[in-house]
Amino acid sequence: MKFLLVFFALIILSGCTYSVHSSAYPHLKTILIEEFKNSTVQYGLEEEFSNKLTDYFNADGRLKVVNINSDSILSGEILDYENKIFSYDENGIEEYKVSILFKITFSDLKRNEVIWQKDNLVLNETWSASGEFTEFKSEEETQQQIIQDLFDQILKNSLEQW
Known about the structure:
The protein has 162 residues and is α/β, with parallel strands linked by helices. The chain has 3 helices and 6 strands. Helices cover 30% and strands 36% of the residues. Helix 2 packs across helix 3. Strands 1, 2, 3, 4, 5 and 6 form a 6-stranded mixed β-sheet that branches.
């Protein structure tokens, strides 16, 4: 008797799963990530952003990254890049703030419609060489976090519509 109760409990629990990976567009299986355009004087940002976004989509697994015949396409442009002094203390510069302005378009090629477009998406993070005041200790670390934030914004506003 005890065995049957445990058996039924396991069957019921095995059917109760929850996934945080939902998709508002289940017909989309593949994505083409175009190399970003770079309208700034920061050399190499376009390649870095395109490559890291490809890595993030591959790791996420909801859309397979392809080079041809895709169901969806992600295009973007880096419109502005700033790394400015954010705060001072008695010893000098305390923190810097990196701000990046993007134009992003995520389109459904099967239905020929734009799923999400943002012409003025600003993402920013602060950093401090001492590491005392912020999580990031370099401009490069800050850029990596902004790429992660961009990926999160793309997913939240396209595939994860609640």
